[in-house]
Amino acid sequence: MSPSTNPPAAADVEAARMLLERLGVSPSDLLNTAPPRPQVPTFTEYIQVVRGAVGAGTLRMYGSYWKRIDERWGSRRLDEPTPSEIKQFAEYLKANRTIRRNGRGGKSTVEHFISALRCVYRHAIADGILAEGENPALKVEKPRRQASNRRAIGDARLQEINEVAAATGDDPELDCLLIRFHTETACRRGGALTLLPADLDPDQCLVRLKEKGETERWQPVSPTLMRALLRHIDQRPAAPTDPVFRYRSGKPITRRRYDYIWTRIGKELPWVAIQQISAHWIRHTTLTWVERTYGYAIARAFAGHADSATEPGATATYVRATLQELAAAVAALTGEPHPLAQ
């Protein structure tokens, strides 16, 4: 049945008018029913909001790009840039990037810039400043990520790295401990830099790793490594809330220590400098050995990879490795019995 086209009765119109007057509502008010949107801020204003809302890892990843956005577009509103302007900005950053020996044509620069911009717009949409679909950065395609050049390091080469670390530098004890820690745990740099004394469980030879994505996991280590960590804490005074890895002065190390280690080793071993070997290569080495020896499920847990929607079906839920299986892998890797190994 189609709606009636008959005009309303005069009495009905008058009754409606009187009701609106009593409520203090005008006919024009009824035409503007959408709630007013907040004023769109500038990039300078809103980037500060986003900086305070993200974690340290995100800030470290995107902070430099937000600074460049602030410098170039600081006075512009979030809803002003177009996809074409974003592409132009990305090409500018690509052309003016710092050229590094391990650079890959600037694709990483473009990828991180677009991701940093998308992060800002996601927060703006969540705050109701912009509507869904008003994120121009989503209309700019990221460059296809290239396959990593990292791979497992052979046993002989890994031995060379350890020998140079032990024989050179201003603190070989620290550097050797760091390399062994990464070799046994296959952790990322963040896992070592954020390790606290409270993250050590000496009785069960476990360390708690806190890595990217605010993930935490307990990882088995050998009794020898655990003793070395406890000795390191005892010999280098610091507060209980300070990180485990620190200089003799008690000052915690930073990512710069890794740069120093691998630059130094690269001077003694040219292949390290040529291939840009880093701590992440050690992670690849350990995880490759675990996967080849114990299979995918244990290697996945050893790596600390979180569950993902890309996993092949629900089977992944039922093949999670146990802590005892990880301990057995560490025991085989180090040649030492582990208290949790079955």
Automatic annotation (TrEMBL):
<keyword id="KW-0238">DNA-binding</keyword>
<dbReference type="InterPro" id="IPR010998">
    <property type="entry name" value="Integrase_recombinase_N"/>
</dbReference>
<dbReference type="InterPro" id="IPR044068">
    <property type="entry name" value="CB"/>
</dbReference>
<dbReference type="GO" id="GO:0006310">
    <property type="term" value="P:DNA recombination"/>
</dbReference>
<dbReference type="Pfam" id="PF00589">
    <property type="entry name" value="Phage_integrase"/>
</dbReference>
<dbReference type="InterPro" id="IPR013762">
    <property type="entry name" value="Integrase-like_cat_sf"/>
</dbReference>
<dbReference type="GO" id="GO:0003677">
    <property type="term" value="F:DNA binding"/>
</dbReference>
<dbReference type="InterPro" id="IPR050090">
    <property type="entry name" value="Tyrosine_recombinase_XerCD"/>
</dbReference>
<protein>
    <recommendedName>
        <fullName>Integrase</fullName>
    </recommendedName>
</protein>
<dbReference type="InterPro" id="IPR011010">
    <property type="entry name" value="DNA_brk_join_enz"/>
</dbReference>
<keyword id="KW-0233">DNA recombination</keyword>
<feature type="domain" description="Tyr recombinase">
    <location>
        <begin position="148"/>
        <end position="331"/>
    </location>
</feature>
<feature type="domain" description="Core-binding (CB)">
    <location>
        <begin position="34"/>
        <end position="125"/>
    </location>
</feature>
<dbReference type="GO" id="GO:0015074">
    <property type="term" value="P:DNA integration"/>
</dbReference>
<dbReference type="InterPro" id="IPR002104">
    <property type="entry name" value="Integrase_catalytic"/>
</dbReference>
<comment type="similarity">
    <text>Belongs to the 'phage' integrase family.</text>
</comment>
